[in-house]
Structures are given as structure tokens and as C-alpha cells.
Amino acid sequence: MAKFMPLSLNFLITFLILLQSANAAYNVVSFGAKPDGHTDSTPSFLEAWTMACSSVHPATLYVPHGTFLVKTAVFSGPCKFKVTVIITGTLVAPSNYQVIGQTGFWIKFINVSGLSIYGGTLNAMGTSFWACRTTGSNCPTGSRSLSILSSTNVLLSGLTSINSQTEHIGIDLCSNVLIRNLKAFASSQSLNTDGIHVQSSTGITIIGSVIRTGDDCISIGPGNRNVWIQQTACGPGHGISIGSLGNNANEDGVQNVTVTGAVFTGTLNGVRIKSWGRQSNGFARSITFQNIVMKDVYNPIIIDQKYCPSGKNCPNQNSGVKISQVTYSNIKGTSSKQEAVTFNCSPSNPCTGITMKQIHITFQNKATTSSCHYAGGTSSGVLIPASCL
Length: 389
Ligand SMILES: *[C@@H]1O[C@H](CO)[C@@H](O)[C@H](O)[C@H]1NC(C)=O
Ligand SMILES: *[C@@H]1O[C@H](CO)[C@@H](O)[C@H](O)[C@H]1NC(C)=O
What we know:
Keywords: Cell wall, Cell wall biogenesis/degradation, Glycosidase, Hydrolase, Secreted, Signal. By secondary structure, this protein is mainly beta. The chain has helices at residues 5-22, 42-54, 98-101, 127-135; strands spanning 25-27, 36-40, 59-63, 67-69, 73-76, 83-92, 105-110, 113-123, 144-149, 152-157, 160-162, 169-172, 175-180, 183-185, 196-199, 202-207, 210-212, 218-220, 225-234, 240-245, 254-265, 269-276, 283-297, 299-307, 322-335, 339-344, 351-363, 366-367, 369-373, 375-384. The longest helix has 18 residues, at 5-22. It starts with a helix and ends in a 5-residue tail after the last strand. One 2-acetamido-2-deoxy-beta-D-glucopyranose binds at residues 76, 78, 110-111, 150.
């Protein structure tokens, strides 16, 4: 037996060293961050990130309990290895909205492959910025709270974002992203405070979000493929939107999006596809909306291809965006006006292949109505409102 002891001890020590280095942890407090809510902790966060990102073993960036004041911060890759960020505390932006409001983002991760962020609360302190947007002048453009840009294999789990200046979370040029149990809250009166905006990305899964804001719950912009949105609670806000599409004449389309198991409460829209009323080579195809409950929703089901805010640069034009293969299945509940289904498609590019099955939406306990312009497809099962396809 004794003969083997040195060997197994050696093994044990090697194992422990490996374990320790594999768990390389960088606590922002060790880099000078103060959980007091008013000391600028930005440099400490960035130094801790640089260490974690350059670690030759998978590393953890740890943000403990407390409130950390963080200004505009870019966490750049590429990193040597996977990085896990564990946040038990809160990141708060300066109360003067000018400080983060000029750059378009507050916290940005860019060019990271293998990034997991667990927990955390982001408070961008957006209320005074919204007031400026609503009543004031010389407001900055405003910033989204968390931007994930040009990254792959990303997990956001259990993040809470409150009072963003503009969007809460933005995903752009990414692939393989999972957002799990996000909470995003802002006033129903705040402008452009979308919960999650996804653009030019592939393989996006969003599960278990609770989003109450002044704008879209989730918006899927141009250039997205393979998006899965499950078990979402939206409202107040503007609902789940594919679009706006067709803002540019030359634009990548949206393909293979599924929204399943959503509840919309008091929202302006439920499930919407929206394009500008002007020329574009964009498209939206293979889109499924299923197993959805509407509670007092103004436009439960809507395709709007005549989007032309302020009547600028698009009056009397037709949308070039081609919408096809859109399925609405098992959608029930109530609307807040009589017309519950609105398909307002492009005269030059009619919607094709719309499928409606098992739709039951009432208004004041009576059947709702539907309206179709340039929309074609098939319907089956219980249909309230009656199909206009
Ligand atoms: C992203 O990382 C690659 C190397 O992997 C580098 O060449 C490129 O410049 C980086 N891009 C940005 C925007 O940082
Ligand atoms: C559509 O997207 C889902 C993920 O949301 C993916 O599993 C599926 O393979 C995609 N389908 C096609 C045809 O690419």
C-alpha cells in the first residue's frame, strides 16, 4: 500500500492545483470596486475583466452583494478561455443621464466566445432620461443597458434589468445565445425601452422572460435566423415584434422564428410583424406563433406593412418586404377592441402562406373581427374571429 501513497498524493495535489486554476476567480472588490453605490467602480470592473479574459483557464468574474456605480464600460474579447460572470449585486449607472447617454450603450460585451452571465441587477437610472425625451430638449440619444456584440456561445441567466434609458438588452451579430429567466422593467410611459432587441444573429433562444416596459417586449430585427422564444410574460408594452423590417433598401431577412407559450397582458400588440412602407429586398418567412394567451390586447395578431412614422420618406409607397409561411396556432383570450386580427400586407408583395388554426379571441364577451388586405393562406379549427384569408 505505502508504495502507492506518493503516487496518489501527487495525483491529489495535481488535481487540487488544476481545480484551483480551473476556478480562477476575480472578485471586482479585490480590484478596488466599492459596493457603496457612489464610488466609480468602472476601472476595477475592467481590470478584473482583463484578468479573467486573459486567464489561460476558464475564469470567473465575481461581483458580490452591494451596489456598484459603473459608467460606460466595454468588456472586449477575444478571451483565452470561457469567462463566467457571477453577479449577486447591482450595477447602477450615474444619476446624471448624460454620463452614459451619449454612446448608445452602457455595458457592452464584444467579441467574446463562451460568455456566461449569472444573476445580477442592472439599474440604468433611466427615469430622468425618459423625462428629458418626453418634455425636454438637448437630450442625448440614450443608451441600451446591456449590449452583446459579435459574440458566440453566450448565456444570460437570471439577469434583472430595470429602468434602461433605451433598450434593456441588445444582441447584435451573435450566434448561439441563450437568455434564460430575464426580468426587464421600465415605465409603460417610457420610450424605446424594449426588453430584448435581437439583430443579425443566429441561434437565439429566449426562455422564461418577464418583461414590462414602454416599448416592445422582444423585437426581432433584420438578419435573424433560428430564433426560439418560449414562455414569455409581456405587458405592459408593445408586444413581441418581428421588425421593423425594410428600413433599408438592401436588407437581410428574418427566417425561422418561433414564439411559443407567451402571455400578453394589456399590451398594445400581441404578435406583430411590421415593415416600413417602402422599397426593400427584405423578407420574413417560416414564422410560428403558438400557444399564446391574450389578455386585453389592442392588436392581438397584426401584420403591418405600412409603417411610416411621421409620414416621412415613405408616403404612398408599398413595402418590398416579402412575408410568407406565417403560422398562428392555439391563440386565445381577449382583445381591447373589436378587430383582433389585422393583416395589412403590401399591395406589391402580398403575404402568402398564412396559416390560422385554433384562434379564439373575444372582445367584451363577443366575437371579434378580422381584416385582410393582400393576405393569402389557409385556416382550420375553431376560428374567432372568422378568417378573412
Ligand atoms: C475580434 O477578435 C478577432 C480575433 O479573434 C480580431 O481579429 C478582431 O479585430 C476583433 N474584433 C473586434 C471588433 O474587437
Ligand atoms: C429553426 O430554428 C430552430 C431553433 O429555434 C432549430 O432547432 C431548427 O433546426 C431551425 N430549422 C431550420 C430548418 O433551420
